[in-house]
Amino acid sequence: MNEVGIKNDDKILSFFVSPMGKIMPIETHGNNVFTKQDYSDKSVLYWPSIINHDSSSNDVSISINYISSLTQENHRNLLEMLISFSRADQNGFIMSANRAIEELLLKICILSLTPSKDEFLGKPSTNEKETTNFLTSAATYSYQLKFLLKVICKAENLPYISKDLLRTIEKIRKDRNDIAHKGKIKRNLSNQELVDMASSVTCVYSLLTYILDSLSNKPT
Asked: The whole model's pTM is what?
């Protein structure tokens, strides 16, 4: 796979093989190779099931779905959530979903609320550090989600999370606390609940990414 530009740190999601001649093991698993297989060495071997006597090789067309190492680094928690979702790993899904939203929201609050060094009342070199301390010890995730984000969006004329989406994210936050403190949540999630949660987190994550980009690109 390195020969087609896929790097060693990239993550293979799946690849599709369309044979022009019969090759194995396509005949046993179909032409869609799923994520559960390990392609960490970025190599895949196939062999002819029927030898083409007119040629020493069989031609195939391959389509590879993968995530670059940079995307993995920037969106690791969201990707871990999606992987947990695909494996029906309830605890892993909840923990990764909560981290994805919490970390992105913290970045937004730090970026928006940190005063400039000229405006800061303390030592200029500690302006961002003290903002972070405030957000992690006083105005923690729940308050950021319910209050601070709304204030920031209103002040910057940016879209805010709808009540229905916010309710789902709040439910995930509470489930995360149950896992962290009790080892499990109080109920087993149905397939429909997992689908609804995954959709909600993806929507909120996309919105928060837009808000963060808007704030980052705001003229100073």
From this structure: 0.73
